[in-house]
């Protein structure tokens, strides 16, 4: 039973009994002392509750300083402290990729290309985690050669914000011109392991001609660049073409579609 609640009634009863001379002064004094002791305890409790309330308010005011806010909008790419660690003002906590600032691609090129690339030159870029190829321009050439790797760096501004820091990619730079005869790769047909194309003569007759296929390229609106199996083109932005070193001459008419319906000796109407 909680003795705090009935104490006022207990004191009032003894006070009435004492006034009616039904209780001795010692009994009244004991009841009064017990009452005052309980009253003091209640006052102490109230004071402690008020003190705790003040502490809670102070802590709530300090909580707003414990929320870490980034000055930029973006993605956390690296955390340099562990949860529960003590940090001080100016401590490095996170690395953040800013959405507003965008991204750039940094490539290392052999020093032999230093005099062959310029800011504004178009290059082909492929990033493994981002499907497709892009045609971009070099935004900056850093003409400082690393004495250990014999390379220098170039930077490309990247469009869009669906990228992340640390993604790996490759660039292809046009360093010169090469003359040759190219045909769409889909026009090359294999017969018995031999490669050839269907050509149309001046009379409209179709003939199969054996050809020697050389290097493969991807052709886009900005030109050609070497094709490899690791870089499959996406969409219709690029067309696969093949360099033909022998078998047909420039100006020859070839069949490039519906090849499964084409036969030697057929005529085009």
Automatic annotation (TrEMBL):
Record keywords: Coiled coil
Zinc as UniProt keyword: no
GO cellular component, one term: efflux pump complex
This protein's record includes keyword Cell inner membrane: no
Coiled coil (residue ranges): 42-69
Single GO molecular function: efflux transmembrane transporter activity
InterPro entries to which the protein is assigned, alphabetical: Beta-barrel_RND_2, RND_pump_MFP
Pfam families in the cross-refs: Beta-barrel_RND_2 (PF25954)
Record-annotated CusB-like beta-barrel domain positions: 104-173
Gene3D superfamilies in UniProt: 2.40.30.170, 2.40.420.20, 2.40.50.100, Helix hairpin bin
NCBIfam families: RND_mfp
Similarity remark: Belongs to the membrane fusion protein (MFP) (TC 8.A.1) family.
Protein name per Swiss-Prot or TrEMBL: Efflux transporter, RND family, MFP subunit, AcrA/E family
Species, as recorded: Dissulfuribacter thermophilus
